[in-house]
Structures are given as C-alpha cells and as structure tokens.
Design a protein that fits this description.
This protein is α+β, with helices and mostly antiparallel strands. The chain has helices at residues 13-18, 25-28, 36-49, 56-71, 84-100, 103-125, 139-148, 212-220, 227-231, and strands spanning 164-171, 183-190, 199-201, 210-211. The chain is built from nine helices and four strands; from the N terminus they run H-H-H-H-H-H-H-E-E-E-E-H-H. The two termini are 13 Å apart.
C-alpha cells in the first residue's frame, strides 16, 4: 500500500483497506451500529446488497454505486427508499471527513504538495517550461487536499464525479523579482466535469491575492519531513 510511489506504507495498511471503525464517535452521531436501530440497518443493507458490512469502506462502495445509478438517471431499487438519503448520504460525508483529515491522508497529501511546489519552483527558476500538469486523482485525494489546506468548510466533503481543485500560479512581468506579489497563487474548485462557475477558494492564512512565497511558507509547516519515520511500524 503506497502513499508515495515506490515506498511502502505498513503502518496504515489496515486503514487503507478497511477505513476507521464503525464505532467512530462521528459515525455514532448519525447512527450507533451497536444499537438495535444500527444492527437492523446493517442487516437490511446486507440482505439487499449481498455485501458483508464490516467497515466504513463498504458503506462508501454501496453509496457510490447507488449515486452513479442516480446520476445516470437510473431508477434506484425500492429498498433504497428507507436508507439512501437518511443514512448512506450523511454517513458517506462523515466518513470522507474522517478519512480526509486523518494522519494517513496528511502524509499522502504532503507528498503530493511537495511534488507540486517543486514543479512550480522549477518553472519559476526556468529549469522547466511545463505550463500545465493534470494529476489523475480520486475523490478521496481531493478530500485530503481540502483538509490539508484548511479549506474544507468552503466545499462539500465528498466531491462529485470529475470535480477538480485547480492550483494556478500567476506572474506579473512588470513587478520586480524581490516583490512578493510578483507571483500570486489562486485556488479554484470545479464542482463537476461541466467546468462552469468554479468556486474561488479563500486560501487559509493568505489573503487574496495570495503571494506564492507566503503560500509556500504556510504549506511548509504542514509537510511531513521524514516519510520513513512517519510510515514505518
């Protein structure tokens, strides 16, 4: 299980596979799976899906499959009437927040941002001329970035299909290099693949227009400096 390509991640293998437990306090705020109501819901979902629900990740998979059907204008099975909106949707949002704010995702997102800022630094230094880079990511990756940047309150916990977080660097050639506003940083959140009306994100601790140097200083405090000690058993 990798958080960084080519590097093992043994400390968090179980979390990657199963997620946190169903007894998490935030999950219990929606439904306590040890209560009669919770056990009845598990039995109901298991009987209708054929899945053994022993971890939050299974709930995510069920909700995801139903959401795909709904987004493609397919009729959901009758059994979903008493469980989809009332339980699965709010539970999925909570599970994504638990996942996105976890130490595991912080480590993964730290590695991702190191790569991003290194590429931007190379572009500024003139050692790279790549103007655009697209990272193929999952909704969980986007969720981790939202928590890492401290901007989760400006979006939803679970991003929609093909949503994207765009990091854009602007340079004003008329401003001297020693002026920090020569290069400013902007975050745009596209809520779907349509690409219309993106949400302009307010970057935490960096008032717009956010200087790139200040953004890097803020991010540096959050980066994981030593992957080996963070991930080893």
């Amino acid at each position: 299980m990798l958080a960084v390509p080519g590097k093992p991640f043994p400390k968090y293998e179980d979390i990657i596979i199963n997620g946190d437990g169903l007894d998490d306090p935030e999950i219990k705020a929606v439904i306590d799976f040890e209560s009669a109501e919770g056990e009845a819901l598990l039995d109901y979902l298991q009987n209708n899906t054929g899945r053994v629900i022993d971890s939050p990740n299974v709930l995510l998979l069920i909700e995801d499959a139903l959401l795909i059907e709904k987004d493609n204008d397919l009729d959901l099975s009758a059994w979903t009437d008493s469980g989809f909106e009332q339980y699965l949707v709010p539970l999925t949002s909570i599970i994504f927040d638990i996942w996105g704010s976890s130490q595991y995702m912080k480590i993964r997102t730290s590695a991702l941002f190191k790569d991003m800022t290194n590429r931007l630094d190379n572009l500024i230094a003139g050692s790279d001329d790549q103007k655009m880079l697209l990272y193929s990511a999952h909704d969980a990756t986007v969720g981790g970035m939202l928590h890492f940047l401290g901007i989760r309150d400006q979006t939803v916990a679970k991003s929609s299909y093909a949503a994207s977080l765009n990091l854009e660097l602007y340079e004003n050639s008329e401003i001297e290099d020693d002026n920090e506003v020569k290069r400013i940083f902007q975050l745009l959140y596209f809520t779907s693949y349509v690409g219309e009306n993106p949400v302009e994100i307010n970057i935490a601790d960096c008032q717009a227009p956010c200087p790139y140097k200040r953004f890097k200083i803020n991010i540096k405090r959050k980066l994981i400096p030593d992957y080996g000690s963070a991930c080893s058993l």
